[in-house]
Design a protein that fits this description.
Blueprint: H1 7-26, H2 34-38, H3 46-56, H4 61-73, H5 76-82, H6 84-94, H7 96-102, H8 110-114, H9 117-150, H10 154-204, H11 212-222, H12 237-253, H13 255-262, H14 267-298, H15 310-318, H16 323-358, H17 364-392, H18 398-422, H19 430-448, H20 460-481, H21 486-499
Helix pairs in contact: 1-10, 1-16, 3-10, 3-13, 3-14, 4-9, 4-14, 5-14, 6-12, 6-14, 7-13, 7-14, 9-10, 9-15, 9-16, 9-17, 9-18, 10-11, 10-14, 10-16, 10-17, 12-18, 12-20, 13-16, 16-17, 18-19, 18-20, 19-20
């Protein structure tokens, strides 16, 4: 099979995978308890947590769906990506410290204290599908990239990617994940700083010129009309507003990202983590997406069916031997870091909120076995779902598919979580009402949207606000219908005092 890759490219990829697995093996004997495995010992430096947070906030979807948008619309994916910056800054100001005070054993264990143990277990059960679907989308994205870049069948690309991520997460837990995140960040940094300059040189050569400045002039002269507009097509300012709410909810309540806050050494470090992430999220998008924008000039006419692979296509056009392998390693890095963090966080929820809820005084060894088995189970389900999505997505692109998934599940999960650390008046049993009510409305809209005449109801601009409103309404109704007893109200007030720092 002619893949366009040299022996050096394959060697780079092989070394990258070997290093990831080596990190997992290294931390196997250093994660001796479930607290260490999930980061509950609170020993992570803020800069490492920040790099890991950043790496967990995107994936190969940036190289696949966002690059496809950059090739088609130009500046639009930069606009979309920059919406994360104010969301993270808001997190730094209002959320970082609260999350660190709230979470103890898992990102959602505070739910049992703020609401009820039943709510916590229900959130774990209903929240897991969203985590699994999100992770499956990311795994499908990296499988697509590897399939295009290396010429592997998509089936084996998904299997290879999933197996390696599960293995080093299984072996080393959060510490291995954080170390791999740092290595993967450095790999991505090399690619992101190198590829735009190579593309500029390629652009300069289109009319026989040389130099980066000349290449940029060629790009500006030959780029399609409207290529530098902040919005285009259906990606209007209304869409951006709704998407901001979506990304803000994600970055505020994602289990893996909450884990980065509460694993830091202090509350001040939790805030510094968020500030670092905001800076990286601002600087990254223009560098990330310029190559795909440039490809529209020197590789015009890529059909829609192949547009998800535009990043791999342009890399094979401009990069020398060895660098293509580095880029594929970077694409792996973007997804592996996100998936590894999500696997560990989801395993923490399964272990602490489901296993420990029913296990009778398990030993430390039993907890570690449960933690590792939960990691394998989560990873296996994600791989299986990625295969299902491969055959089910049809003409629907990954970007819209991910938005629809989040539109259904994100508001009913995120809103009760956020209200739980900000709003005193909601009763203990209101959380379960909000969760169930919001998801019920989201699934109903999704079902109605299967009728062609009502297909618009599945779009994010409709389904996200509808499920958010239904969730808030259900929270309010639950508070009215299920009022707290005096002891329950006192417990809520004590919890909120602790989260707000009113108690020592």
């Amino acid at each position: 099979m002619n893949t366009g890759l040299s022996i050096l490219d394959y060697a780079v990829i092989a070394v990258f995978f070997a290093v990831m697995l080596g990190v997992g093996v290294w931390y196997t004997r250093r994660s001796t308890s479930s607290d260490q495995f999930f980061g509950n010992d609170k020993t992570v430096p803020w800069w490492l947590a920040g790099v890991s947070f950043y790496m967990n906030s995107f994936s190969a979807l940036a190289f696949v769906m966002y690059s496809a948008l950059a090739y088609k619309f130009g500046w639009v994916p930069v606009t979309v990506s920059w919406l994360s910056v104010p969301a993270v800054l808001l997190g730094a100001w209002f959320l970082a410290v609260r999350w660190r005070r709230a979470a103890k054993g898992s990102p959602i264990d505070y739910i049992a204290e703020r609401y009820t143990p039943a709510m916590c277990r229900t959130l774990a059960v209903l929240g897991l599908p969203m985590q699994l679907l999100d992770n499956a989308l990311k795994l499908l994205a990296i499988g697509t990239v590897v399939g295009v870049g290396m010429g592997f069948p998509l089936f084996w690309s998904i299997c290879l990617s999933g197996a390696i991520i599960v293995l080093y997460t299984f072996l080393g837990g959060l510490k291995a994940t954080l170390t791999c995140d740092l290595i993967q960040f450095l790999v991505i940094l090399i690619v992101v700083l190198t590829l735009p300059f190579l593309c500029l040189g390629h652009l300069a050569g289109l009319d026989g010129g040389t130099g980066l400045v000349h290449g940029f002039r060629v790009f500006l002269a030959r780029a399609p009309s409207g290529f530098f507009a902040f919005t285009a097509g259906k990606y209007t300012w209304v869409y951006m507003l709704v998407f901001f709410c979506c990304v803000g909810s994600t970055l505020s309540t994602n289990w893996s990202l909450i884990q980065r806050y509460y694993s830091t050494k202090s509350e001040r470090d939790a805030r510094k983590t968020a500030y670092l992430v905001a800076a990286l999220l601002f600087a990254g998008p223009p560098l990330f997406f310029f190559p795909a924008m440039a490809a529209r000039v020197f590789l015009p006419g890529i059909p829609d069916a192949e547009m998800n692979g535009v990043y791999a296509i342009l890399c094979r056009a401009v990069l020398p031997a060895g660098m293509i392998g580095m880029v594929i390693a970077a694409m792996f890095s973007a997804t592996m870091s996100s998936l590894a963090g999500n696997f560990n966080a989801a395993a923490a929820v399964v272990t602490n909120e489901l296993y420990l809820a029913f296990a009778k005084a398990p030993s430390a060894r039993a907890k570690m076995v449960a933690a590792r088995l939960a990691t394998v189970a989560v990873g296996g389900l994600v791989v299986a779902l990625a295969f299902v999505m491969q055959y089910a997505q049809g003409a629907d692109d990954l970007f819209n598919l991910s938005n629809k998934v989040f539109g259904v599940f994100l508001p009913p999960i995120a809103i009760p979580m956020l209200c739980g650390i900000f709003v005193r008046r909601f009763s203990k049993r209101s959380g379960l009402c909000g969760l169930v009510g919001g998801i019920a409305v989201g699934l109903a809209l999704f079902a109605v949207g299967s009728v062609p005449a009502f297909a618009y109801l599945r779009e994010m601009v409709w389904i996200f606000p509808a499920t958010a409103f239904a969730t808030l309404l259900s929270l309010a109704l639950g508070t009215l219908l299920f009022r707290d007893a005096p002891a329950e109200r006192a417990a809520v007030e004590a919890f909120m005092d602790r989260i707000e720092g009113r108690t020592k």
